[in-house]
Amino acid sequence: MTLGYLVRRLLAVILVLFVVTFAVFAITMILPGNAAVMILGEYGTEEAVAAMERRLGLDRPWYVQYLDWIGGILRGDLGQSLRLSLPVADVVGDAFWNSASLAVTALVSVTVIAIPLGVLAAIKRGTVADLIIGVFSYIGASMPEFVTATLLLIFLAGPALGLFPAGGFVSPGESLGGFTSHVVLPAATLGLILTAHISRQVRSEMSEVLSSDYIRAARLKGLRERRVIRRHALPNSLAPAVAVISLDIGYLLGGIIVVEEIFAWPGLGRLLIYALENRDLPVIQAITLVLATVYALSNLLSDIVIAILDPRVRYA
Amino acid sequence: MAGGNARGAGADTPVLEVSRYSLSYATPSVPVHALKNIDLRVTHGQTHGLVGESGSGKSSLAWAILRYLPENAIENDGRLLLSGENLRNRTHPQILEIRGRRISMVFQDPSTSLNPAMRLGEQLSEVLIRHRGLTLQEALEESEAALARTGIAKPGDMLRRYPHEASGGEKQRVVIATAFACNPELIVFDEPTTALDIITAQQILELFNQLQDETSISALYISHDLGLVSRVADVVSVINSGEIVESGPCAEVFRTPRNDYTKALLDAVPNPKQWLGVSEPPSEAPALMSAKGVTVEYGRQSLLGQLLAPKPTHLGAQKVSIEVRKGELVGLVGESGSGKSTMGKVLSGLQDFDGIVRFGDRDFARLAEIDRAYRRAVQIVFQHPDASLNPRQRVREILSRPLKLYDIVPREQRAERIAKLLEQVRLPREFADRLPHQLSGGEKQRVAIARAFAAEPELVICDEITASLDVSVQASVAELLVSLQRQTGTACLFITHDLNLVRQLAHRICVMQHGKLMDAFHRDDVEGPDRNPYTRALLKAVPPPASQAA
Known about the structure:
The structure holds 2 protein chains of 2 kinds.
Chain A: H1 3-30, H2 35-40, H3 46-56, H4 62-74, H5 88-123, H6 128-142, H7 145-157, H8 176-210, H9 213-220, H10 225-262, H11 268-277, H12 281-309
Chain B: E1 16-25, E2 32-42, E3 47-51, H1 58-65, E4 73-75, E5 79-82, E6 85-86, H2 92-98, E7 103-106, H3 110-113, H4 120-132, H5 136-149, H6 155-160, H7 168-180, E8 186-190, H8 198-215, E9 218-223, H9 226-232, E10 235-240, E11 243-249, H10 250-255, H11 260-268, E12 287-298, H12 303-308, E13 314-325, E14 329-333, H13 340-347, E15 354-359, E16 362-364, H14 372-377, E17 378-381, H15 385-388, H16 395-405, H17 414-424, H18 441-454, E18 459-463, H19 471-488, E19 491-496, H20 499-505, E20 508-513, E21 516-522, H21 533-541, H22 546-549
Parallel strand pairs in B: 3-9, 3-10, 7-8, 8-9, 14-19, 14-20, 17-18, 18-19
Antiparallel strand pairs in B: 1-2, 1-4, 1-5, 5-6, 10-11, 12-13, 12-15, 15-16, 20-21
């Protein structure tokens, strides 16, 4: 893990982001209708649409619009939302923090639950505990979010129990209790499938490590089982799990769009759907850029964590 | 040479006494017997060699002594006594106190028995912390001293390294230092040199003898290699199918074996003084194949790869020239990573190269020029028949492939030819209907040899074809190869790390190291004055077994 390696990886991240923004720009250009049409509605006259296009700068060639936007980014200016008449940075910034609070809650609870579950299943291989964890994982992995969300809403937010609110958002700064009660159901929806996925991965890695020669050697040194598991087996089985978690972040970013819509969570997912419906190009671009950056950086972070766990990777 | 210093003190109670011990494994059908009525004693300061082929039960005995048996193990009421205490009466926590402190173990392959994610120092010092209650600091100091005793030049540096940062020999020294760390009563060595290079193995063996003399710790030394055991053990037991067939002082067993199985094993150990090969072709015989200045570069990258993450390339072979004449057997000897297998791949048309390969009167300058005629005339047999035979194909299909591909015989004669090929490799013709997993290791290798000879080649390249086989099977495979050579007049390039074996077969021997050809000589000149120092070091590392030295 050298500085040169980090610099190369960061350059690669920037290259990827550039390609992503270009692709998104190209796709929104192909879509029928633009912000001017959407603002004025079906009955806007041609002159009115043309005037609106001129006001919004949509009459310029696409490459001028793109370069203008890229230039803005480099100056730290994400532009104005075409529809909300607010700076994009403000709109997307608020939504980003809301989404981040949901995603981080989901990811942290998944990691905290899934890794011990997987380890337990591997140690108790072939027992009832392993079987129960296995069955839970199969069910968890095979249910799409909207089904999980519906079931959770019916049973936990329905009139019978009403433990949690069915939707909405309270920021953690405002009331931590309010935030917690609102975040439980969306986070559980996002987390269930990931918990299943990650615990299975950890179980299979851990089982393999436990049957390795060096674990046998550690046991034949007379070490206590607790040290064999924690010091010898766990670090070796976590590195592959971290790789899976970082891939799952990509899945999480997709899942968040569905879950936010279902639970009326005012995050990036809901904002993205709104912006797409209204052809609000600067907002679409900004959200895409944010999501791609989060994904690329979390991959980089996971590579660093793997290098810490597995010294053989370090000389890359 | 062996550390034969069995002392009188406490010699009345053996350090290890196994008596009437039997072990079997429960399977869904019938129990598999691993050990039958084993009696074995290791006295104080003694090294007891336990010799057997794969599946003989020698490792099962090690697991039984360390009380590390799988759940399906069924034991009789035989006894396993450590200094008079029956290990079988001990509870699991008591066993954990004994392992590593009173009995420790050295494993076959240091690259898999060390944890890749932990520094070597931690892996060594943890036994001291566990069993002698030292603090981390004390344990590390003690580890450094222990490592120094195993001949590691900078033990302090070594402790801070991870396993992948150390060589095979260094790693095995760490494992050995760990085993000796708590000054145990008994150390079980399970083939501790098999996974190492020849010269490294020799050094580890010397280290073993030195430490044994210094500490007079008793040892149970498990190996398949009789020659090796004869150099370390005071007493030897020969185990076959779970039974000890012969036991006695090492020199005696090797000089005058009583049991037939022991005799057969001893006969199978390659003896360089005993010529097995075919008679040498006349010296004016033309070269069949000659490689001139062959260079192979591994790790070439694409342009983008070079830009993003440039890695140095590595030379698998560097300007190597080798010649094989018609009907000749040339030995190509080297340690792992020497480039000998790279040359085997180049000459069999599997690896791109720079330089010239001349075959008959045609020149080939790179992989793309190697054509069908060349591929038919040059066949290869690989080390692992398990990997080179398709597990889904019957022997018939495996052998008919080259017959069809090169149109060796008309379709209606194929069955007849397959039967004949099987007969040539001394397998019954009914084996044509078998699948590879229904054959033993030696039988599979015979099928692989038959496949190579099916194409009626002019040159057969044998890449470590005996390395994965048991000693007794090795000898018969080598002998088979020679008899096929005698019948067909095919030339052979025999790639191996086993100098004693190749000296029985090869007319000329080439020695490679680090991708370079170090030495090439006629078999009569093995001890000639112009031998390369590396060749001499190799020869010194593998002296013939004690029984043959006289």
